[in-house]
Specification:
Blueprint (H helix, E strand, L loop, with lengths): L8 E3 L8 H10 L5 E8 L2 E8 L15 E2 L4 H14 L29 H5 L26 H10 L14 H15 L3 H10 L8 E2 L11 E3 L2 E3 L16 E3 L1 H12 L5 H10 L3 E3 L2 E3 L4 E3 L3 E7 L4 E7 L4 E7 L6 H8 L8 E3 L5 H4 L4 E6 L2 E8 L2 E6 L4 E3 L1 E2 L4 E3 L5 E7 L5 E8 L2 E7 L2
Antiparallel strand pairs: 1-15, 2-3, 2-14, 4-8, 5-8, 6-7, 9-10, 10-11, 11-12, 12-13, 13-14, 16-17, 16-24, 17-18, 18-19, 20-21, 21-22, 22-23, 23-24
Helix pairs in contact: 2-5, 2-6, 2-8
């Protein structure tokens, strides 16, 4: 449920009168993200649009050189390297993945069907999204300590719930395993391999595995306006191929224009093969790593603890787009829209300004049930709520008494008694209305 009030600017972004610049800048103006950088390749020319800051405390502006964690867009680098090695006859996509693994790591089979390299590259392996023994020492930096020993233990004891090749199932584990296999074939760690095969040939000097190089220009990531740790990886982090890269708009546009360039080089041939439709992926198709929407938009997105990204292109129009943000607000709708305006932008809300004197009245504990309460606090001029056994999150004012959450579709409304004293709140979520009396 979304309430439209005169105090609330509520935009659906369907008007073609809005310029590209306005559509991008709104993401910062409406506090969807502290910073955003967009690269667009069209008519043979690259243009950049940058708004907002790298860090809310320092207020240093983002630029096309600002580094962002690109998360799962890394998967398209991994599959590109797999195709490159296949062109050198070092690997075959029809091969059993088991043949490239150490003897102690036993891949599961199901009903006589085995996992192939093709299955890993197209998210059809039957492996789960994440290994069940994934239990990081630091949840804010989750992948750095997932090593070969953990992978061996899980893989060797995993039972498939579906046949390999039967259905699409997005899997960080599967793509991480493919990256691990490539490191075994070339006998090089993933950071070195991606540099030699992809970034160095494309002169992408600011793209590398996070934690393995200097990151002076890395933006700070934010989850619901709270700064979070950067995710890091090292040579022992076996799932780096699923999401370990950082990059900037300048480098990513080199990568994207290379997807559209036709030449006789091995890299160009490899890129073209990754775009070929290989299987169904729900409502879309999938190539090697890349997803394909309406059989024309080739794309992938990325998300880490404090970043969201999008990369996509359309061969028919010879157009490519990259969107990089340092927040957990999604970038997909903007990326698709910039590629083709037939794809609509999501509606955005702009928080109104409420004085701290008013906000202070809402601080307290609200009991929704005997075992479930919501604690409201005021921190740095903003209201936060924390439900029982749940993390603390920001709520944003759309009027003096009505607030909304960004991380889920939910709203909070405060109510006052006849003396203007706050007496209760209502939580609106999923069609349900849950009242909570202020108890302290």
């Amino acid at each position: 449920m979304r309430i439209i009030l005169s105090a609330l600017l509520f935009l659906a972004f369907t008007s073609k009168s809005q310029s590209i610049v306005e559509k991008i800048k709104m993401r910062v103006d409406y506090k969807e993200t502290p910073g955003i950088v967009v690269g667009i390749y069209e008519n043979g020319k690259v243009t950049y649009h940058s708004f907002g800051v790298m860090n809310l405390q320092t207020s240093e502006a983002v630029t096309p050189k600002t580094l962002f964690e690109i998360g799962s867009i890394t998967k398209t680098f991994t599959t590109s390297m797999a195709v490159l090695l296949s062109l050198e006859n070092k690997i075959k996509f029809s091969d059993r993945a088991q043949s490239y693994l150490p003897s102690k790591m036993i891949l599961p089979e199901r009903d006589g069907k085995v996992i192939t390299i093709e299955h890993l590259a197209t998210a059809h392996s039957g492996l789960p999204r994440m290994p069940k023994n994934f239990s990081p020492k630091d949840a804010a930096n989750p992948y750095v300590d997932y090593t070969e020993d953990f992978l061996t233990t899980f893989i060797s004891n995993c039972e498939l719930t579906r046949d390999p090749g039967a259905h699409y199932e997005y899997s960080n584990l599967g793509m991480g395993l493919l990256g691990y296999i490539l490191t075994r074939i070339e006998e090089k760690p993933y950071p070195k391999l991606v540099t030699e095969l992809i970034t160095k040939p494309l002169d992408m000097n600011q793209t590398f595995v996070s934690g393995t190089s200097r990151e002076k220009h890395l933006a700070s990531g934010y989850a619901d306006n709270t700064e979070v740790k950067a995710w890091t990886w090292n040579n022992e982090s076996v799932l780096a191929g699923a999401g370990g890269l950082v990059s900037n708009a300048e480098d990513m546009m080199k990568f994207m224009t290379a997807q559209l360039t036709t030449s006789n080089t091995q890299l160009s041939k490899a890129f073209a093969l990754t775009h070929t439709i290989r299987a169904d992926a729900g409502a879309m198709k999938i190539g090697y790593g890349w997803h394909i929407r309406d059989e024309k938009i080739v794309w992938h997105n990325g998300g880490t603890g404090g970043f969201r990204s999008f990369a996509g292109f359309d061969k028919a129009t010879n157009k490519a787009v990259v969107v990089l943000t340092n927040s957990t607000a999604g970038a997909d709708d903007l990326g698709f829209h910039l590629l083709n305006e037939q794809y609509e932008l999501k509606a955005l809300k702009k928080p109104v300004t409420i004085s701290e004197a008013v906000l202070t009245n809402y601080v307290g504990t609200y009991e929704i049930a005997p075992t479930f309460s919501i604690v409201v606090t005021l921190e740095n001029g903003s209201l936060m709520i924390q439900a029982t056994n749940q993390p603390k999150v920001n709520i944003y004012p759309e009027s003096e008494t009505k607030f909304y959450l960004k991380i889920v579709d939910a709203q909070i409304e405060f109510f006052k008694d006849a003396t203007s004293k706050v007496e209760k709140l209502e939580l609106h979520q999923g069609g349900a209305v849950m009242p909570g009396k202020k108890v302290k």
